[in-house]
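Technical annex, item 7. During the second reporting period the consortium partners agreed on a shared format for inverse folding records so that results from different sites could be compared directly. Each record opens with the tokenized structure and is followed by the designed sequence. A conforming record, contributed by the partner at site C, is shown below for reference.
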């Protein structure tokens, strides 16, 4: 991303519906409501990944996920008392006690001369500390593991939206971190001290009342967000200091010249230490704790840096790039803690633009816990550096920017796929897509096409309001795909209406399951969430219905002899059911259910999208439609003459399909992948980086296609064709 924005400018289109800016003006316009022409409601969280996570995962809206400005303001006022200067001073004793307790553990490791994972040590320390600060008691370590396991799922746009939508139970972590019983016990205690919950509950005296779900959601959010941000801040600061021992020596000298003993290190005093604060600030400049999709906003229609961003476009303001830009910083890629104190006239850093430093964001959604996080970071780092002599044992083998991943937070991803299993399934199903099988499927397509023609003819005779091509495309492709997969059709075309299963598909559940962005139909998503994922139910009803349909079809198919005329036969030949058992195991049925869901949903969505876009483009370009009709009617006097072999000679028809796939590829955004660490197009991409190649951008690029943004089937014709045009010879 940095390479793109340095090479191509301050604004880069990184996907079909996503624009990334890298300027301080964009930061203000997008995140500071009402300024720089952004307009109060110009950019919102509504429709972003955080919005989806908030709706699906949290028991109630919290200050992180609230979309409505008034609701956010109410929650912010309720939570703010936990972060006042007075509360901060009271909370220091809790912080100091936990640091002391963990230093006792480190002492044992130091005596045994053992190698210590300082990141894990800091993670457990901050977990206990924040649990105590939030609820007056530390939370169990098992709940830390729950949070870490879920947060390591890579948040890569459509994939995560699919994952969260399909498996919302995985993401109900606020309830796991703070069960209702624990919340109730905390609220009933009479000895509550200076914890967050006490401060929040105290706002009721000011007329600000939160429900139990809102208390649970906001309290758990404070722990989760504070935990990861603090650990990232401290780990990255130690990483930079220990990679350059001279920098660590400067910090240690500053501390030991200021304090006679570790016990003398207090929050108020260390807040004034220039090198300590510079070390932390500089680490957060280079490694901003939250550096990804969590800061994205969706445009309602507004200007950013003089550029109009239409409604529905996702806007990213890339902090990583801004905080490393030579436009704003001297020696932007270097760790220079002194830049934060040595800023006078004539210094190297005189012209650094500190408005480009926004690790806590800005505006009404700026981080409430900024001062608390900085106080914890200062205390932990100061006492750790004062007490211990440390060196980095993996300095040669670990490079943060290369070996850490960042999509929402800085994390080590666990990619939940098995490439060997994928190859086995693909090898089995691939046989069903060979030439022989495709020819066999032609009869299915012919049958359903005839049903479609009859239905459309009757519809046009009886209804003057036109035809919903999108709906009919979905029915045709759904019937074809289900019959090709199972040997049985749902006959939605013959009936002229959607079945329950197809309705679930078109309402985005299955589309999301194969990675199709649900931002395209925000109203459908809201309806889906409101009715199908009702809080009255403990299960995702829609997903259960959809997968139950897949399972039932799979069980039905198991009850019939295997043939070679449907895809499931090939799958069952590769994965035969256990012999002598009528009751198949849950695991086996779940496997078949998953394959069925993928085949049907993937095939229906992509084929339906292609059909709809082809008809749309032809209707928008009547001259192309006329050319297609001329070819088809000359070649086929009767519709019965059209078959799988003869249609291959309809060159203009083939060109229309190819051009439709180019101009509106069904999977437009490209499927993200986690890079193993390799060179792509001459650029080294570090291990763990999320990479994708949006097909729609390449397909519409003038570098590859003449008049790239126009629908011109002629570019695909052979040179001897009457409509061939030489202007496309270099495509």
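Designed sequence (site C submission):
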């Amino acid at each position: 991303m940095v390479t793109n924005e340095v090479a191509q400018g301050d604004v880069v289109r990184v996907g079909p519906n996503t624009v990334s800016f890298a300027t301080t003006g964009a930061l203000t316009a997008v995140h500071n409501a009402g300024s720089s022409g952004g307009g109060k409601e110009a950019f919102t969280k509504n429709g972003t990944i955080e919005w989806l996570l908030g709706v699906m995962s949290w028991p109630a809206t919290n200050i992180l996920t609230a979309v409505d400005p008034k609701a956010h303001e109410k929650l912010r006022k309720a939570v703010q008392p936990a972060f006042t200067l007075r509360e901060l001073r009271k909370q220091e004793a809790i912080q100091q006690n936990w640091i002391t307790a963990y230093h006792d553990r480190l002492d044992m490791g130091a005596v045994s001369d053992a190698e210590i994972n300082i990141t894990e040590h800091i993670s457990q320390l901050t977990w206990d500390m924040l649990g105590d600060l939030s609820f007056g008691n530390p939370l169990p370590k098992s709940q830390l593991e729950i949070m870490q396991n879920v947060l390591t799922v890579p948040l890569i746009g459509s994939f995560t939206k699919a994952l969260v939508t399909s498996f919302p139970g995985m993401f109900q972590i606020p309830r796991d971190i703070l069960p209702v019983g624990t919340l109730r016990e905390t609220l009933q205690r009479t000895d509550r001290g200076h914890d967050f919950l006490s401060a929040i509950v105290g706002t009721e005296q000011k007329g600000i009342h939160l429900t139990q779900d809102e208390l649970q959601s906001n309290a758990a959010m404070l722990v989760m967000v504070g935990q990861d941000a603090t650990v990232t801040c401290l780990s990255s600061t130690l990483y930079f200091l220990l990679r350059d021992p001279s920098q660590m020596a400067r910090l240690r000298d500053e501390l030991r010249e200021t304090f006679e003993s570790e016990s003398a290190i207090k929050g108020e005093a260390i807040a004034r230490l220039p090198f300590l604060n510079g070390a932390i600030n500089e680490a957060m400049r280079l490694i901003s704790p939250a550096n990804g999709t969590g800061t994205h906003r969706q445009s309602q229609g507004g200007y950013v840096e003089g550029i109009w961003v239409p409604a529905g476009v996702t806007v990213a303001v890339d902090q990583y790039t801004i905080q490393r830009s030579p436009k704003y910083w001297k020696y932007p890629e270097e760790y220079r803690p002194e830049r934060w104190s040595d800023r006078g006239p004539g210094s190297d850093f005189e012209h650094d633009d500190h408005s480009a430093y926004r690790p806590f964001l800005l505006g009404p959604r700026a981080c409430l816990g900024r001062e608390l996080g900085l106080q914890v970071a200062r205390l932990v780092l100061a006492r750790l550096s004062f007490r211990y002599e440390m060196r980095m044992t993996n300095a040669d083998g670990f490079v943060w920017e290369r070996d850490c991943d960042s999509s929402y937070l800085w994390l080590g991803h666990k990619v939940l796929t098995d490439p060997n299993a994928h190859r086995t399934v693909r090898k089995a199903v691939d046989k069903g897509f060979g030439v022989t099988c495709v020819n066999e499927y032609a009869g299915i397509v012919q049958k359903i096409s005839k049903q479609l023609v009859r239905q459309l003819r009757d519809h046009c005779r009886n209804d003057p309001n036109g035809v919903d091509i999108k709906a009919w495309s979905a029915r045709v492709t759904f019937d074809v795909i289900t019959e090709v997969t199972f040997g049985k059709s749902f006959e939605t075309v013959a009936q002229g209406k959607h079945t329950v299963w197809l309705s679930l598909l078109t309402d985005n559940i299955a589309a999301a399951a194969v990675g199709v962005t649900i931002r395209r139909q925000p109203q459908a998503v809201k309806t889906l969430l409101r009715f199908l994922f009702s809080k009255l139910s403990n299960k995702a009803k829609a997903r259960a219905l959809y997968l139950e349909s897949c399972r039932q079809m799979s069980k039905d198919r198991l009850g019939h002899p295997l043939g070679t005329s449907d895809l499931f036969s090939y799958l069952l030949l590769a994965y035969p059911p256990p012999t002598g058992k009528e009751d198949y195991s849950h695991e086996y049925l779940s496997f078949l259910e998953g394959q069925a869901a993928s085949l049907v949903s993937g095939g229906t969505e992509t084929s339906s999208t292609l059909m709809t876009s082809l008809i749309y483009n032809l209707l928008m370009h009547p001259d192309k439609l006329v050319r297609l009709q001329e070819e088809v009617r000359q070649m086929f006097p009767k519709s019965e003459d059209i078959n799988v072999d003869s249609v291959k000679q309809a060159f203009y028809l083939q060109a229309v399909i190819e051009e439709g796939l180019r101009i509106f590829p069904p999977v437009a955004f490209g499927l993200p992948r986690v890079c193993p660490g390799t060179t792509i197009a001459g650029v080294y991409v570090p291990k763990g980086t999320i990479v994708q190649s949006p097909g729609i951008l390449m397909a519409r690029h003038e570098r590859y296609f003449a008049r790239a943004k126009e629908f011109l089937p002629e570019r695909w014709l052979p040179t001897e064709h009457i409509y061939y045009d030489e202007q496309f010879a270099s495509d």
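The radius of gyration is 30 Å. The chain has three domains: 62-289+370-416, 419-620, 649-731. All partners now use this format for quarterly exchanges.
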